[in-house]
Amino acid sequence: MQPTRDRAALAAFAGATLLAGGNAVGIRFSNRELDPLWGASLRFGAAALLLLAIMAALRLRFPRGKALAGTIVFGALNFGVSFSLAYYVLVYIHAGLGQTLLALVPLAALLLAVAQGQERFHVMALVGTLVAVAGVAVVSQAPLRADVPVPVLFAALGAVLSFAESAVLVKRLPEVHPVTMNAVGMAAAAVLLFAGSLAAGDRWVLPEVADTWWALAYVVVAGSVLTFVLYLTVIQRWGASRAAYVFVLIPLVAIVVSAWLDDEPLTLSLLLGAPLILIGVYVGALRGHERRGLPSGRPPGLFGRR
């Protein structure tokens, strides 16, 4: 049974990575016409409506009590806070440096999971994360000595911690269907994003360009609904720190897709950095070692029996 679960988790990991890799290109096209927070609000608002419709079609129960509160907190962290901070950061710093900082999510998730008694510390996970981060830095040619304003740096670290903590939180919640968790979580995040967009003075207009509509369709259906259902599956079966390695593979996929659709050149740095990323992900997440969750006595998480 375990090999079947591992194969399913690996397939979900690969699917989430590939779909999320296209998000960066979709957001790039969207941002050419729409203000960033307004585009994010449309994205998660539409994704929440789609998931709520799927919930109704599947006759899934709406969470209550602790499950509802935890799902709202998960959505606020993973979609609302994280994306608000990430969009703010990318206004001020190069995308390469932003990608490098987000590649720290696996390390942050590991440290948070260990601090909260959810996983044991593994040296190989630390080594894998550092190697993968180095690879992302090479691929993106991140300006590590750039003069980054202190508020922007704190916002970037806040996004990293928010993504990481939301992954750790999933393992502590009562059983909730992944479609339900994403539907409720994205609805809660959409409220925050709409409020942030209003406070930022964004123009609330609908797209007029066909490419923007196609980009929104992608980030809603593939980049939000499918990606995060798969991501939650990986978190449950592998744990927060291993699942977070999605964040270090996303830049590779994004660069390839961008070269295909947006004429971004493929450089020597990709050839040099890609092997480091793959080695880091293998060592930290895919290497054949036992699951890093705690042994018996740990209450099952999102999909397990209670």
From TrEMBL:
Membrane topology according to the record: Multi-pass membrane protein
Keyword match Protease: no
Keywords: Membrane, Transmembrane, Transmembrane helix
Pfam families attached to this UniProt entry: EamA
Transmembrane segments: 40-60, 67-90, 96-114, 121-142, 148-170, 182-201, 213-232, 244-261, 267-286
UniProt superkingdom: Bacteria
Places the protein is found: Membrane
Cleaved signal peptide residues: none
Main location: membrane
InterPro entries on file: AA-Vitamin_Transporters, EamA_dom, EmrE-like
Record's GO cellular component terms: membrane
Residues of the EamA domain: 11-140, 153-283
Entry annotated with the keyword Transmembrane: yes
Family: Belongs to the EamA transporter family.
Protein name (database record): DMT family transporter
Lineage of the species this protein comes from: Bacteria, Bacillati, Actinomycetota, Actinomycetes, Glycomycetales
